[in-house]
Amino acid sequence: MEFDLESAREVLRRTPAVLAALVRELPEPWVRQNEGRGTWSVFDVVGHLIHGERTDWIPRARIILQHGAERAFEPFDRTAQFQASGDKSLNQLLDEFGALRADNLAALDGFRLGPKELALEGRHPELGLVTLRQLLSTWVAHDLDHLVQISRVMAAGYSDEVGPWRGYLRVLS
């Protein structure tokens, strides 16, 4: 499917509500379990999404729009949430994520992007040249990737409880 800014924006707009509907007010075991050493819980993923809202998508879009490939993006710390989220509740994180996403979508709208701007290039510190279109496409896919991850982590909590149905549940394989 070809990137379409309006439909991409609609997916991005929905993510905070989808997350909140899925996990808000759930008991701690649901949101703190993970898939083992070095993996993330629901709580960790929401913290990671917040860090991305603060330091990744819109800040990098601004760099592309203002500097092009002349200025490389700052490296993204994929584990910053472990320090930043520690003393907060999941509900606080969900609220923070929703507010940050709304602000970032307003910023995105303010860019008034067209085909020319979407083709502009930036410099990723690991990947090299990338376009604004690729960055925004990745933002959408990143949201969806983490929604899948959250579903998988939650389902794993019942992996032993489902008994013989486990073979029918791809989320548990």
Q: Would you summarize the structure shown here?
A:
With 173 residues, the protein is mostly helical.
Compile the SSE list and pairings.
Elements: H1 5-23, H2 28-32, H3 42-55, H4 57-67, H5 81-84, H6 90-111, H7 115-118, E1 121-124, E2 128-131, H8 132-156
Antiparallel strand pairs: 1-2
Helix pairs in contact: 1-6, 1-8, 3-4, 3-6, 4-8
Could you describe the 3D structure shown?
This protein has a single domain, classed as Up-down Bundle (Four Helix Bundle (Hemerythrin (Met), subunit A)), CATH 1.20.120. 60% of the residues lie in helices and 5% in strands. It is mainly alpha-helical and 173 residues long. Helix 3 runs parallel beside helix 6.
Note poorly predicted spans.
Answer: none
Query: CATH superfamily assignment?
Result: dinb family like domain
Distance between the termini: 28 Å
Shape: elongated
Report the CATH C-level class.
Mainly Alpha
What is the alpha-carbon Rg in Å?
18 Å
Helix content: 55-70%
Strand order in the largest sheet: 1-2
Number of domains: 1
* Class by alpha and beta content: mainly alpha
How large a portion of the residues is in β-strands, by DSSP E? under 5%
Q: What is the element string, with H for helices and E for strands?
A: HHHHHHHEEH
Please name the defining characteristics of this protein.
elongated; 173 residues
